[in-house]
Structures
1.
Amino acid sequence: MFFKRLNLSFKFIDLKAVVRTNYCKPEDLSWSEIPYPQVADDEVLVRIYYTSINRTDCANLMAKPFIMRFVLGLFKPKKTTLGTDFSGDIVELGKDSKCFKVGDQVFGFKDIVAESQAEYAVFKERDLFLIPVGLEKDIAAASLEGAHYAYSFFQLADIQAKQKIFINGATGAIGSALLQFVKTLDVHVTASCRTEHMDEVLEIGADKVVDYTQEDFTKLKDKYDVVFDAVGKSTFGKCKPVLSANGIYISSELGPFIQNVFLPVLTRFTKKKVFFPIPKKVEQTIPFISKMLATGKFKPLIDRSFELDDISEAYQYVMSGQKKGNVLLKIS
Ligand SMILES: NC(=O)c1ccc[n+]([C@@H]2O[C@H](COP(=O)([O-])OP(=O)(O)OC[C@H]3O[C@@H](n4cnc5c(N)ncnc54)[C@H](OP(=O)(O)O)[C@@H]3O)[C@@H](O)[C@H]2O)c1
């Protein structure tokens, strides 16, 4: 009843959203007012509490790499409101909705823009997942983008008990989630970060930490069964000496000359291999993340939270490549 009454009133006002009508730099970004979204029969209206500002948002903002324009819009973005993930609650159901009720607390992630950096957004039911009971909405929003990609890395490596694993960039959104997923297995993990973050990386599960400002991990004497470069700062060639005889290299970036796309084919019949992670569907990743959150095996690292007025500064900070874990945008 409360929400129905609310619907009647809030539909006459515009809502705040982070909008870009052309691909642009973070410096050119601000929030605008946009008309209230219409809820189609097969859609659900969500009031957004938090979204993260992440590296996927930055890529969507600027359409970089260029190849993204084939999905986002060749000359202009097809979807003008930014945002890929969210936590919030359902305030209105389309006529055909079957799975949720008004008041349900939900979260979700869509890499090719969920238009969630706004006070309200519409979604298909298949895009929504219930937030684990008792989980704070900021934690929920911080558990999506990095953890979604981390799951794809984790699955691809097919890690076996007692293996030795190296994670480069264990304080990134992907790296910090990946470290916690990998540590659910009986393995030994060495992870890298800067000096100030060493204790935190040990706290989230690393057995050993390498300070990348003091030591180049590709020159370590130890050998690893899997090297995950979660910040894409290395190459397979440089990591070969630290890979065990049948070691696997996985990077979050395409690498110089987009080599990480081709190397999996070239190394197919060699002992040391490169795997390229194709992101899994959210139907696979978010239920896994929810289970990890609910069982306390995963807790996202949160760097800081920005308000809508500071949206340009927030994107600039994320683009610096030095955020720790996840950066949030508080909406409601
Ligand atoms: N393949 C995909 O589908 C996909 C999707 C999303 C993102 N990405 C890419 O994946 C990468 C990681 O994304 P993210 O959001 O997890 O990153 P992020 O959170 O922006 O990573 C920031 C962290 O990187 C660490 N770092 C910076 N330079 C480093 C170095 N030389 N060695 C080790 N660590 C270093 C920093 O650690 P300290 O603070 O400890 O210095 C910082 O905490 C980005 O390059 C992004 O473009 C790929």
2.
Amino acid sequence: MISNSVKFLLNDKILEIKNPDPNQTILNYIRTELKKTGTKEGCSEGGCGACTIVLGELVNNDIKYSSINSCISFVPSLNGKQLLIVEDLVSKEGKFHPVQEAMVKFHGSQCGFCTPGFVMSLFSMFKNNKSYNHELIADSISGNLCRCTGYRPIIDAAKSLNKTNKTDEFTKNKNKIIKLLKNIRPKNIFIKKDDKIYFSPKNIKDLKSIIKNNSNFNFLAGGTDLSLIVTKERKEIPFIIDLKEVKELDFIKVSKNYLEIGAATPLIKFENEIKKYYPDFYSVLKRYGSVQIRNVGTIGGNIATASPIGDSLPILLSLNAEILIESFNERKVLSINNFFIDYRKTKLKKNEFIRSIKIPLFKKNIFKAFKISKRFDDDISSVCGSFNFEINNNKIKEVYIAYGGMAAVPKRAKACEKILKNKPLNINTFDQAKNYLEKDLSPIGDMRASKEYRLEIAKNLLMKCFVEINSNKLTRVN
Ligand SMILES: Cc1cc2nc3c(=O)[nH]c(=O)nc-3n(C[C@H](O)[C@H](O)[C@H](O)COP(=O)(O)OP(=O)(O)OC[C@H]3O[C@@H](n4cnc5c(N)ncnc54)[C@H](O)[C@@H]3O)c2cc1C
Ligand code: FES
Ligand code: FES
């Protein structure tokens, strides 16, 4: 079954948009068509959180709430979901939601421009968790900027929710919403509006048939990179194939030696699984954009952008990950070490997509990864370093080192690895090896960091690794 309309719930009412413009952002739709102006526009690039909305989705007969940036999400992605905007939080009797009440009580708002975004981020935290510690609160609002109140009163408001009754209007309405969501379960969508086409298949078979018969399309996953063509470059994307609803692309499978992840799995789902095997991978992902970005952004999208500052890329390089690539009639496996060609260029051909990524589980190795950026939260890396050591009897048996932000592509430091391999684990080995990073890496200077700073940091991260391995302690600043 194919539909050309987008059906979703606006809180508890079914809405249908027939043949929408596939390039229209949800933010634009909310403000100009629903005429609800509580949701604000700040940056139009996912960076400030003023446009935060919450989407409710059916997961295992329950509702999962996700905060997202409506400025960089297109209208068709509402299909089959519940859209909640700040106006929906006030009850029909005009009573504030507990999150709004807490913001008032703790003076969490001054000019108010950022407030609806904070309220929606905290609402999603409130609904998805039973208690709220500092770490969870800081993570939940890491994608929301406030320029006048400051964060302390907002954090106090969030902490006070621990003492609030968790039964709100949405809890009372839950069964009704679940029923409605089941009624509007998404079908394949095909939209042709003016000269724009949008296709959202539900399974891999339908995905392959559209790839077979078409060319010149753009795959869309979380849209946290692609949508900026519309919102920042002010251009159109004429033909979109949305991968987000393809069920075979959203999975995590763990076997004895590998973790395999579907390319369109949201990063937020992946971070909780990878934590068990590589805690530093998790720590870097926790500082990847914000919750809003990780709720939609995918690992497949991160790899396909081939950005030199893509955070997962040096990590996947040092873990020797494999990429499963498919087209309508072919299937192949490439080592990620052979995948990046040049600045934002990969070996993917036009009608090929990434199906999944296989990450080897080096159970005996020591794995470390560090992200260096100007700001702790919601910032792009200046340098990201990733280190995978096999050490036996105080000797380095095998080593894989990779950096992001240090060349036109994320890159292995092979000259440095060669010096370290088969050497004793001591400071002299590392002191000697760090100078070879100058052979491996050729950073540029930009607004994030000078090239001298980048090289120095890359060397220091290697030495930090030595100190941590040698002392068997973490030397981290929180
Ligand atoms: C506010 C903000 C903060 C950010 N912070 C970070 C950060 O801290 N670290 C970081 O690394 N990045 C960051 N990014 C960049 C962005 O989140 C990543 O590049 C993201 O991983 C892209 O994934 P996506 O699913 O959103 O991809 P999309 O935007 O949907 O797609 C990106 C590209 O990949 C292609 N593509 C997507 N999936 C596939 C597939 N399965 N097969 C083939 N091609 C595919 C698309 O056609 C497109 O060309 C940030 C972005 C924003 C807006
Ligand atoms: S307007 Fe800034 S994140 Fe959307
Ligand atoms: S209250 Fe003014 S920007 Fe936050």
3.
Amino acid sequence: MKRSLIALGLSNTHLVSLSGGLCVDPDTAAAFEALIHRAADAGFDLRGLSAFRNYDRQNQIMNGKWLGDRPVTDAEGGVLERGSQPDIAWRDAILRFSALPGTSRHHWGTDLDVWDAAAVSEDYVPSLSPSEYEVCGPFADMTHWLDERIAADDAEGFFKPYSADYGGVAPEAWHISYRPVAALYEGLATPAMLLPLWQGKPDAMGVSHHPLAMLSVVESQAEALLERFVTITGSLQ
Ligand SMILES: [Zn+2]
């Protein structure tokens, strides 16, 4: 049961704190520290911007976007207007950049969003936009270095699950995942586990969560949505 609770973002008892306050899985923490040292030798100050995020936090983000309390952005960070878009189109615009609660890789403590503090001024706040990581962006050199390490299977066990666009989640050059532990949780979340949570029913620990605001547009298509937005098609697993 413990493993499925972690997969769904319903447990944080397995985590440790990184310097800087981020929470991660212990093995991931050790591997990330090793990667930081390797990056430092290459002239980069590799840092995590976000790591573990629990079910309730992810649910709050998604509900905020669906209900219009949080901006929904495109790949360039531009704010999208709901306008007269049908519910389904608005749902897909949100799902391209945000995971349904219970399906985020950030639930596991194995995944981090990273940036290079050596490439920018001290007061710079990373926005995790593609332009920062592309050629001529401040984090382009770090991205090139890290991608080379990953391609050579020499990145302390990390890989990029969203390295290319397969029509579901948009590419995220900043998102790295510690494969040895993440592999334990991939594919565990099923519609049968997720739907009761999204409906606001108590979880396996008896804790209730806010219902998912976009429930009406995901309920009947949960299987297909997981296939499109959660399963990583085409990557070297
Ligand atoms: Zn991420």
